[in-house]
Design a protein that fits this description.
Elements: H1 3-20, H2 22-30, H3 35-55, H4 67-85, H5 87-91, H6 98-109, H7 125-140, H8 142-146, H9 157-165, H10 178-200, H11 213-225, H12 242-255, H13 259-266, H14 270-275, H15 277-299, H16 310-325, H17 340-352, H18 365-383, E1 392-393, E2 396-397, H19 400-424, E3 433-438, E4 441-446, H20 449-460, H21 481-495, H22 499-504
Helix pairs in contact: 1-3, 1-4, 2-3, 2-7, 4-6, 4-9, 6-7, 6-21, 7-11, 10-11, 10-12, 10-13, 11-12, 12-16, 15-16, 15-17, 16-17, 18-19, 19-20, 19-21, 20-21
Length: 513
């Protein structure tokens, strides 16, 4: 393990985080929030800059990174970012508990969107900005951004970092040079971000927030781009006009696509985009899910409080499916009270997630397709041992190793999910009655197994809202510190797709080579 090399990159990341904190610092100054809020960001900026500078002083013995070092560094970077990113919340008093603050900012960087803030109207504008901005930072990846500035090596070090941080079973370059690849990805990301901000500005201001339209458009877009769902007004997106809700739905679906496909569009290879098997499966899944949810809301298989028009039923179906399949977690209504078919459909898409190479979480559509084909191959082999597999994905033959890797990931994913549910069962909140105030009125729910199951699922899939006592109009504030720490690490495991975190905490990783 080359500690000096790791320290140097970590130092660059810390300086970068300090630079990024200048944005919420500027927001605090613009809104004249006072010295306390200014110091809340100024103090960690100074600490990050000094520490980052000192970490870069030792000269490493070698400049290359082995694969295990790249994976361990990725997990370490995300933990350090969260530990320092939580400091402003504690200093300004918006989130006095450091454990709660770490939960909140990890939820931001991992683009989860689960929150421990029960009353969003009580926090400062700079806190609202930093929470949502962390979605945008973590969406494409922290190290992916840094790779733009780090000199490219010929030993594969950059590829190790990209593979460790980028979601999906297969990660590759879209052009020959890694630095050019990352620049292209971020330019597409930035361009789509600006486009959504501009379009949202065409809508009418939200009643009661007439002077906040640009600020809210900015925060909304940060959440859409990173597919994170931090709300910044009561009810998340409930008060937004239908125009904005449709715009948000469309952009969530677009940000859930593999960004490599946008590069193909830019160079004129439109047919290659529609040839993508994952692309077609992704949109088929969205259409099917919207159809099932819409059917449940219109036909009312079960009695439920909300009464929707046909347009409202379609809009909420589209919004919630696009929000949860892309693991953004924005809400337009209280789906906690929907019929069982609608809720079950949402749980399914929370598992699947969107496309690999996007900013979304979940298992990913590509893995689901590969797993189904792998299962089919295994069944055929049992029936006919002489059967020669011919399954293909994205025009390439599926190798046994790829299928095994997919099965291994899904197994680990489910083991961690079950483990998190088990640990949450020790919490004293279990069995207590929680009062929910939503657009459908006030009602009571018992915090039980389904609350814990959906809380663990929403964290490992980086979705945000869950069901029952931790539903879209509730928060995670009632959980104990132990449960919040469990869920914080669950979010990290989900965002980095498990392996980098496991490698970080493996003692063999840190042995001298």
């Amino acid at each position: 393990m080359e500690y000096k090399k790791l320290g140097g990159i970590l130092g660059k990341i810390m300086i970068l985080e300090g630079i990024l904190m200048l944005a919420p610092l500027a927001v605090s100054i613009i809104y004249k929030e006072g010295l306390k809020n200014i110091l809340a960001f100024l103090v960690p900026i100074v600490i990050l800059a000094l520490t980052g500078f000192l970490l870069q002083l030792p000269k490493p013995e070698r400049n290359n990174l082995y694969q295990k070092e790249g994976f361990a560094l990725t997990a370490l970077v995300w933990i350090v970012m969260a530990l320092f990113g939580a400091i402003p919340f504690v200093i300004n008093g918006d989130i006095p508990s450091y454990v709660d603050a770490c939960f909140e900012i990890m939820s931001g960087f991992t683009t989860t969107g689960s929150s421990i803030i029960p009353d969003i109207t009580s926090v400062s504008r700079s806190t609202l900005f930093w929470r949502s901005f962390s979605h945008w930072i973590g969406g494409m990846g922290i190290l992916v951004f840094v790779l733009i500035f780090i000199p490219e090596s010929d030993d594969g070090s950059s590829m190790h970092l990209l593979r460790a941080e980028s979601p999906g079973p297969q990660v590759g370059k879209i052009v020959s040079k890694m630095k050019v690849t990352t620049r292209i990805l971020y330019l597409i990301y930035l361009g789509m971000t600006i486009l959504e901000i501009v379009i949202l500005m065409f809508d009418k201001p939200i009643p009661g927030y007439e002077n906040e339209q640009f600020f809210f458009s900015l925060l909304t877009t940060f959440g859409c781009a990173g597919t994170g769902g931090f709300g910044f007004i009561p009810g998340s997106m409930e008060l937004f006009h239908p125009f904005s809700q449709y715009v948000i739905s469309v952009f969530l679906i677009l940000f859930g696509c593999n960004f490599s496909l946008y590069y193909l569009l830019l160079i004129g290879k439109v047919r290659d985009v529609f040839k993508s098997e994952e692309f077609r499966s992704y949109f088929f899944l969205i259409a099917a899910a919207v159809g099932f949810v819409f059917l449940s809301l219109v036909d009312k298989f079960e009695a439920f409080p909300q009464v929707y028009t046909i347009e409202e039923a379609f809009r909420h179906s589209l919004f919630q499916v696009s929000s949860l399949i892309t693991t953004a977690g924005f809400t337009s209504t209280d789906f906690n009270l929907w019929p069982m078919l609608g809720k079950t459909t949402l749980i399914v898409v929370m598992f699947t997630g969107a496309m690999a190479g996007s900013t979304a979480g979940g298992i990913k559509v590509s893995r689901i397709v590969m797993a189904m084909k792998g299962a089919y191959i295994n069944v055929r082999k049992l029936i006919n041992p002489r059967y020669v597999p011919k399954a293909k994905f994205e025009g390439k033959t599926l190798e046994a190793k790829t299928i095994n890797d997919v099965f291994a990931f899904i197994t680990l994913y489910l083991f961690i999910l079950v483990g998190a549910i088990f640990l949450l069962s020790f919490d004293s909140i279990n069995g207590q009655v929680v009062t929910i105030v939503s657009d459908a009125g006030t009602y009571d729910v018992i915090h039980g197994f389904f609350s814990n199951f959906s809380a663990a699922l929403t964290c490992i899939s980086n979705v945000g809202p869950a069901f029952e006592a931790v539903g879209p109009y509730a928060s995670f504030a009632l959980y104990s510190n132990f449960s919040k720490i469990v869920l914080t690490f669950t979010m990290l495991l989900g965002r980095l797709e498990i392996l980098p975190v496991l490698i970080l905490f493996n003692k063999r990783t840190w042995k001298k080579v």
